[in-house]
Amino acid sequence: MKLIGSLTSPYVRKVRVVLAEKKLDYRLQVDDVWSKASEVGAANPLGKVPCLVLEGGDAVYDSRVIVEHLDQLSPLGRLIPPPGRERLQVKTWEALADGLLDAAVLARQEATWPGRSDAQRCPAWIERQLGKVSAGLKAMETDLGDKPFCCGNHLSLADIAVGCALAWLEFRFPDLAWRADHPQLARLLDKLAQRPSFVDTQPPQG
C-alpha cells in the first residue's frame, strides 16, 4: 500500500498512527497539496490528503474511510468495535475530533494563507471557527471525565483521532493554551504521546 500525505497534516497522522498500531506495512509518499508539483490529484480528484493507494491501484480517500478499511485488514488490536452502541460512540468521538480540526484548519488558513493580504482577512470568520474549537474541547473534556480512554478502558480510534487533533492544536496554535481549562484532555494526550505510534509520527518542527 502507498499512503500519499504530508508530514504535518493531522488527518494523515491519524492514518499513520492507525497503520503503526495495526502493524501494517506501507510506503509513505510525501506530497504538498499547495504545490504545483503535487501528485495527489492523479489519485484523488479532490486533491486532498490522505489518500491510500491499494496494491491493485484503487484509491481510498478521506481519513475516516481509510482508517475503517485499515482496521478490517488485520484482527490485531481492533480500533473500531463491531456494529452497536460502542462503535457509535467511537465514530462520534472521531467525528468530533475531525470537526474540531476542520474548524481549526479553516481559522489558520484564513489567518496565514499567502494568497490574501492582511486587509482581505476576516477576523470574524477566524473567531467563529475558533469558537467551534473551544466548544469541541469543552465537549470532549466533559465526555472524557476521569476515564483512562475516550470509550472506557482500552485504546480505540476515538483516542487516536482526539490525540492527533490535540497535538495539532499545540503544533499550529501554541498560544491557545487549552491545557489549563481541559486537564483531562491534557492527561490523555500526554499518555498517548508516549506510544511509539505517536512518537514516530510527530510533525517536523519549524
UniProtKB/TrEMBL annotation:
Tell me where on the tree of life, at the top rank, the source sits. Bacteria
Entry's SUPFAM superfamilies?
A: GST C-terminal domain-like, Thioredoxin-like
Q: What are the residue boundaries of the GST C-terminal domain, all occurrences included? A: 83-206
InterPro entries given in the database record: Glutathione-S-Trfase_C-like (IPR010987), Glutathione-S-Trfase_C_sf (IPR036282), Glutathione_S-Trfase (IPR040079), Glutathione_S-Trfase_N (IPR004045), GST_Omega/HSP26 (IPR050983), Thioredoxin-like_sf (IPR036249)
The UniProt record lists the GST N-terminal domain at 1-78
Q: Which CDD domains match?
A: GST_C_6 (cd03205), GST_N_3 (cd03049)
Q: Name one Pfam family in it.
A: GST_C_2
TM region positions? none
Q: What is this protein called?
A: Glutathione S-transferase
